[in-house]
């Protein structure tokens, strides 16, 4: 637990079996309790970590009166389910994340079969299917999500103690991802949108919006216009130079577009063939698609599709369908 600014604490909540290690959640002192930003992964270990760190601050779960969740990925929203047993806190998320909860989590099998169909259309070989099965406990939990009490659209001001948090809608990594900006103290709660080292995964999924990468780049531009002195991200370490980081992430995505354009110079390709031809995880020296673990292969293909969608919208590439398989070529 770190007190980042007077009355703003960072809590580190472990994520089971994940290289990210933990989710940073933030507690803001309010007049009659606390506001929590993001909850963490749902596990006994996570709940204990939350309790321990709250007691270091001299408080407890029952004094959390509001929980704002940046987006509904399991490492942010998961623990809300358990926290509801200890507090009557109002749960607040963006309207589009509520829609994701209702669609993806209540129709989990339909979503999986949509994804499977999409693999075939995009030229993935049979042996890379199907999607991994979900353990039954998780499936049950996903099908009975906690329904949020309130939704935001972006632009709202949420006051907590000495701070006024402005909601900024930053779609891309998730369709209803939000950041919170405190203009007086120049603090940005960045969620997964702007992390200091890794670039967040941007996937074209059935519920991810029309052009998630395009939306992500626009959201970066929105943040670039803010006067920020300290970024409190949901993973990795606190950092200070938001504008430099935005430039790096923008460059990363431009490089990937260039790489895709280069592979298309050889002629039309499926998204699967493009994924196989480009370099993945450049921050760790670069890995070929065939050497990625299965889950990462799926993420890589979905990310390629997000790039192709943005390039279609920008008119850089066009697509055609032959025998139920989609191909891309340079416009
Ligand atoms: Zn996320
Ligand atoms: Zn996350």
Question: What brief labels describe this structure?
Answer:
331 residues, alpha/beta, seven-stranded mixed beta sheet, five-stranded mixed beta sheet, globular, binds zinc ion
Tell me the layout of helices and strands.
Blueprint: E1 2-5, E2 8-14, E3 22-30, E4 33-37, H1 44-57, E5 64-68, H2 74-77, H3 80-83, E6 90-94, H4 95-105, H5 108-121, H6 136-143, E7 150-152, E8 157-160, E9 163-169, E10 178-182, E11 187-191, H7 212-224, E12 230-233, H8 242-264, H9 271-277, E13 279-280, E14 287-288, H10 294-313, E15 317-322, E16 325-330
Parallel strand pairs: 4-5, 5-6, 6-7, 11-12
Antiparallel strand pairs: 1-2, 2-3, 3-4, 8-9, 9-10, 10-11, 13-14, 15-16
Bound molecules: zinc ion (2 copies).
One zinc ion binds next to loops.
